[in-house]
Write a structure and sequence with these properties.
Helix content: 25-40%
Number of strands: 12
Largest sheet: 6 strands, mixed
CATH topology of the largest domain: Rossmann fold
Shape: globular
CATH superfamily of the largest domain: P-loop containing nucleotide triphosphate hydrolases
Strand content: 25-35%
Structural class: alpha/beta
CATH architecture of the largest domain: 3-Layer(aba) Sandwich
Order of helices and strands: EEEHEEHEHEEHHEHEHEEH
Number of domains: 2
């Protein structure tokens, strides 16, 4: 395969006497959707918080593809450090400011400024281009996002990540609480982003979504990796066995 966009090696992290992550390896490649599965408490959320700069690991290293295409070791002291290396997280809550419109949400904390004022015209034009890129059906960029549908809000959150040249998207339950039509649109959007060469980490409890979208699946249990498999090579039952029993399929 090509060089990965991100590689995590031997990641360990403890909280007090609890070993939350135990020598975890994980990576994601360009144009790949990598599903991350496991019961609550398996360690997947902690791993993602390490990758997104929320936690610093006790042990292990993170490598990120540099501008020349080579892997470079990275140390994240904050989520902003991860964002500057092209790693963006779209949380299940979406972390949108409901009282603000789509433009303000996309540029929240990273506003364009002209002189002493916000450059509203440039921000709106850039936001519109990015939303068009993701195929969002947002009829007005200037209404509070609280009035938008679930799928439109998801598109705004994705556009916010793409606006600042993300190369890796971490998506936490992207189709949760969406109806069938909007779920289909979000899935189409994920496939489109994959075709552009982005690496996507997909966290979901919906096995059908994971099998429909993922190229590879990593299952965690008890802070460890049970196994990483190609989606085409396993069945739903085998992945369920990995999640429940912590046993990788024999090949």
């Amino acid at each position: 395969m090509k060089q990965p966009l991100v590689r995590m090696e031997g990641i360990s992290l403890s909280f007090g006497g609890v070993r939350a992550l135990d020598r975890v390896d994980f990576d994601v490649y360009p144009g790949e959707v990598h599903g991350l599965l496991g019961h609550n408490g398996a360690g997947k959320s902690t791993l993602i918080r390490v990758l997104s700069g929320v936690y610093r690991p006790d042990e292990g290293r993170i490598w990120v593809r540099g501008e020349e295409g080579r892997l470079e070791e990275a140390v994240f002291h904050s989520p902003r450090d991860a964002q500057q290396r092209g790693i963006e997280t779209i949380h299940q809550s979406l972390a949108l400011a409901d009282n603000l419109d789509a433009v303000a949400n996309i540029f929240l904390g990273r506003e364009r400024v002209r002189g002493l004022s916000l450059d509203e015209e440039t921000m709106e034009a850039e936001a519109r281009r990015t939303l068009e890129r993701v195929g969002a059906r947002v009829f007005s960029l200037r209404v509070p996002v609280i009035s938008m549908s679930g799928g439109q809000r998801q598109a705004v959150a994705i556009a916010r990540a793409l606006q600042f040249r993300a190369s890796v998207l971490i998506m936490d339950e992207p189709t949760a609480a969406l109806g069938p039509e909007e779920t289909a649109r979000v899935k189409d959007l994920i496939r489109s982003l994959r075709s552009e060469g982005l690496g996507i980490v997909l966290i979901s409890h919906d096995l059908h979504d994971v099998f429909d979208l993922s190229d590879r699946i990593t299952v965690m249990k008890g802070g460890r990796v049970v196994g990483t498999v190609y989606t085409r090579d396993v069945t739903h039952d085998e992945v369920l066995q990995m999640i429940i029993a912590g046993v990788a399929p024999e090949r």
